[in-house]
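Memo to structure team: turn this sequence into structure tokens by end of day. - J.P.
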Amino acid sequence: MKTNDVVIKIDGVDFSYDGDLILKDITLAVKEGDFLGVVGPNGSGKSTLLKIILGLIHPLRGMVRVFGQPPEHARHLIGYVPQHADLDYSFPISVRDVVLIGRLGKAPCLGGYRKDDRQAAEEAMQEVEIYNLRNQRFGTLSGGQKQRVLMARALVGKPDLLLLDEPTTSVDGRVEQDIYELLKKLNEKVTIVLVSHDVGFISTYVNRVACVNRSLSCDRTEHITGDVIEACYSGPVHMLKHKCEL
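Reply from structure team:
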């Protein structure tokens, strides 16, 4: 799938909250087929960058294009997985119905979900290997299972770009590895931008790393050194390589 087509183009972007400059002169290009990891310390602007790409917030200055369009015009081409489920765990909603929420922008306003919507939900659940959980209540699932459901919800609209905001924060190492293996497989047909706190773990899977700490530097994974990471985090960082168990 990898081509030279630019999916995300950001040029000279500044962003501030209440007068405090969070992002400064951000320039980034993400090409079709990329698996980009975005790392940096807490409060460095990583999640803000995702929101700008989604068109949920707008920069003070600079240009942002997603598939050659302003971000708000390209949302139908984007799947988004938030850091935490935006659902009330006590609400009795099934896994299937959570996934179907991802079809709301494509389903008709009246008459409920169509056959195509339900078929797309089944395919998405199978893709992330939770089809057997389709009738279970979402709130009863483990942290890793919940994240897979949110991934299926993001994929059910058949996006060309998948954005994930620290999807493995609340899971253990074994589940984290399983999720990254799944993302690596999904990357065969969808461009991925992943915010993570674990640069050592994601370096096994991503092909490029963007270090964000108000400003941004980006390079291929094999060129990311300890010095680069320490400069991003403004201090010593232990960068550990995680080997996958086959």
